[in-house]
Amino acid sequence: MAFVSRIRRQSDYNTYPSSIPIVIDNGASYFRIGWAGETEPRVVFRNIVQRPRHKATGETVTIVGDLDPSMMKYFDCTRSGPRSPFDSNVVYQFEIMEYILDYAFDRLGANGSGIDHPILITECACNPVQSRSKMAELLFETYGVPAVAFGVDAAFSYKYNQLHGICKKDGIVLCPGFTTTHSIPFVDGEPIYKGSSRTNIGGYHVTDYLKQLLSLKYPFHSSRFTWEKAEDLKLEHCYIAPDYASEIRLFQEGRKEAEEKTRYWQLPWIPPPTEVPPSEEEIARKAAIREKQGQRLREMAEAKRVSKINDMENQLISLRFLLKQVDQVEEDDIPTFLSDTGYASRQELESTITKVTQSLRKARGEPKNEPAEYEENPDSLNNEKYPLMNVPDDILTPEQLKDKKRQMFLKTTAEGRLRARQKRNEEELEKEKRNQLEEERRRENPESYLEELQAQYKEVLERVEQKKRLKTNGSSNGNNKSGGVGRGERLSAAQRERMRLLTTAAFDRGKGEDTFGSRDEDWQLYKLMSKDNDDDDEQPDSDEAELARLSSRLQEIDPTFVQKVEGELSQTSGEVPRVRPLTEEDYKIVIGIERFRCPEILFHPNLIGIDQVGLDEMAGISIRRLPHDEKELEERLTSSILMTGGCSLLPGMNERLECGIRMIRPCGSPINVVRAMDPVLDAWRGASAFAANLNFLGNAFTKMDYDEKGEDWLRNYQIRYNYL
Question: Which residues lie in Basic and acidic residues bias regions (predicted)?
């Protein structure tokens, strides 16, 4: 199909003789190209170029104009965004401009080696000569164009509407374009560029301002507010307020008129599934499942324990049998006998038997007591096990001194383990007694016991949450009004002591001569600071252990108990949650004051930080810049003010502009503001009518003229619009 359309365009191109000019409206937003004498352009597309990479082949592809959304899945556009050949309203990227012209001529059907038709191309008012020269060079050298003519788009629109009786020979054209706004006065049908003015504000800034306001208003939907969507919202909903201050007051007071002017955009929203509390049957079913799973786990653990006990019993039998064999071997042959078994000596074998015996007792659940002989006479056992402990050092050899130190270390370690074991046994006994008392209380009054347990759980949970908030609070001082605490209140006792020591040292150093370090007492500061007193931070929190115990206990006796996760306590204690689930109202985009606040920058650019005049003042500036000082001429100019350009389509533009100009003109001055028949296409249509005139070639220049006269001649080049 694409091949057939290419043949049809080529045939259309061949039907036009070489004397028919090609008309190009090179706007900063859209590019339009067609034949002179026609009323509609043949090709219209956005004046941008993208060079994404194909995901499958990795090849870089050049795409001119808008990219089809259905084709986005085939290209990687993250590294190459859309690029425009314009800087404001002046062409300066001619490499991109060449891509656009190639695409435009190809769509028009001119895919040969050169373009044999004269070209009329539009430009902005007072276009820099460097841009005009580069454009002429591109058309002459690259495409072989026989002749080129440049004209201002706003002037073509004014002349086209003058032909249809919309405006007069004397008047002013105001053109709020894509990135700039121009004001050009006309006297006797010719533009007076000395009286023109320009502001760097246009439709792009209105769209971007609307996108920013909506993104700030709905930050969780910022990805939906693309530039293209903001452009559609602007064209569909924005309007010019007759009186900005009164319109703002209307919305501030919340009147009925403001509600009628508010528009809503509903985004797709899927309601979250509602959580239904479980029924008694469901609770009982889940409790039965948990009990079944617990029974299965207990059976698996019991089977594993029995298997482990059997393995250790077999190992102990083997080790004892090996020990009996060692008893029958002579002392000198023991190392050789044990070399194949992996043991180096009889003592190592006996130590292994002792360890396996202790592990077996632990697995069977037997009491972990020391042998009876150790309990009855520990001193005698120590004397046998550590014979060098009570021997004086002066009668020992250096090797014996080393053995004595080793025996002292082993004895201290063994005594420490014994004390720890006794402490654990005491804790287990205390825990068992407490469980028995709680069980008796539960049997006496189950309801009262459950309520007391739930109150304890809530109290401990509050303490744990409070500690977590103190640790994670990001406030830097104690004047936080949101309920937080300062850094000093989050520090532990040891950390506060270190800060006190540092502050004292710094305070003492500030008094007179710095003598810190001259006394031995000064160095005690480092010992105190390096002292590890953060036991409360390093050791496990007792509240968390108590919370885990209460939680497990409640799960045993209360099937409806649900353990609270972190963050739920702050919501139940009356604090405002940091994140709340989005509702249907959050997906409803309210466009109220933004409807007229964004287009207001055309009249007050200072709202977005641009210190320039608005549309109404531009007309007065153009009148004051004219060399004529005639009251009749000023009245003729203000009686024919034409609005053209995309932003003139906004409702209320003519009335607001007429009101603004009336405030800066003398009382009784005739003021008439009209809008072009088609503010978007009238520039191309006016250029098409101008190029269809027989005298068009008299306004164009050839490559020979460009080569002979150079850039200085292009500086003063200007077509005569009265031929239209």
Answer: 414-446
